[in-house]
Amino acid sequence: GLLKIDGFRWLEILKKSSRDFLTAECPKAFVREMIKDEKGYKPELWQKMAELGWMGLAFPEKYGGGGGSFLDLCVLLDEMGRVCLPGPFFSTVVLGGMTILRAGSEEQKTKLLPLVAQGKIIITMAIIEPESNYTPEGINLVAEKSGEGFALSGTKLFVPDANNADYIICVARTDKKSKGVEEISLFLVDAKAPGLTIVPLKTIAGDKQCEVSFNKVKVAQKDLVGEVNKGWQHVKQVMSLAATGKCAEMIGGAQQILELTVDYAKQRVQFGRPIGS
User: How far apart are alpha carbons 97 and 157 in whole angstroms?
Assistant: First the structure.
């Protein structure tokens, strides 16, 4: 578990230790290299982060985590944003892990969360579709009853890190005749399942976003994450956490920009004096 001397002291320790690690392991040259890299991350660095306990930081100890809070995780995300850390950390821990922690069955949590904490699996979440935004009305990918399970058909866009994922949590409509909130469910899908196609998209930032197509992809009843027709409440919760986490990342990036700008203004001389003067 986490040794918490007191709340603020612990956050200071976490902030300093993560900054020292990321400064050494994630220089600008590495970030540029990963933009061009097909995977967009290095498994060696991923494993080092797992050994530091970062993947499981905000998961309960009984699931192999560190027993920390979401605030702890945001301090870490702030430092990751500061160096523009590439890779599937946010997708796996926030979009994937937090969804399973809040909505998953005990069996799913016991099986998957320790693997996330150990850095052994990558998970992402597929929400947005070609004609939609982050609203329940925009969910049109259909999950139809098929035998004892379901068959998923439709397309998701801008799925982060799907090209590296072992599992994709898919937000689907379990009644194609309805547009309501009550007919949305979550499914845990093997990223190598028959009928599932993943196509990386070219982005300005060079981050790894994908189009994911489902052609009657079969999932078992046990792969439901939460109850059938009650998935949107969990999506809303996780999107709130994700928005907060992304803000933490952006604050870290903005702080780094400020520091670079101040340093430049002190050094850049124009008309015989530093421009910062």
Answer: 20
Q: What percent of the chain has pLDDT over 70?
A: 97
**Angstrom distance (rounded) from CA 255 to CA 235:** 30
Return d(Cα 49, Cα 43) in angstroms, integer.
10
Comparing C-alpha atoms, which of 43, 117, 124, 128 is closest to residue 86? Answer: 43
Helix, strand and coil percent figures for the chain, each rounded to 5: 45, 20, 35
C-alpha to C-alpha distance for 211 and 173, rounded to whole angstroms: 18
d(CA 204, CA 19): 27
DSSP label at residue 163? G
Hey, is 142 helix, strand or coil? strand
DSSP-based three-state secondary structure for 93: helix
Q: In this structure, what token pair is assigned to residue 15?
A: 């902030």
Residue found by looking up tokens 């098929």 in the block: 146
- Cα torsion angle, 46, 50, 52, 54, sign: positive
| Token representation of residue 120 | 């052994």
- Looking at residue 123, what DSSP letter applies? E
Work out the burial of residue 184: count CB atoms within 10 Å of its CB; fewer than 13 is exposed, 13-18 middle, 19 or more buried.
buried
Please say whether the beta carbons of 112 and 104 come within 8 A: yes
Q: How far is CA 196 from the centre of its chain?
A: 20
Phi/psi at 212 (5° precision): -120, 120
C-alpha span between 66 and 10 (Å, rounded): 13
Summarised one tens digit per residue, pLDDT across range 121-170 is 999 999 999 877 888 989 999 999 999 999 999 999 999 999 999 999 99
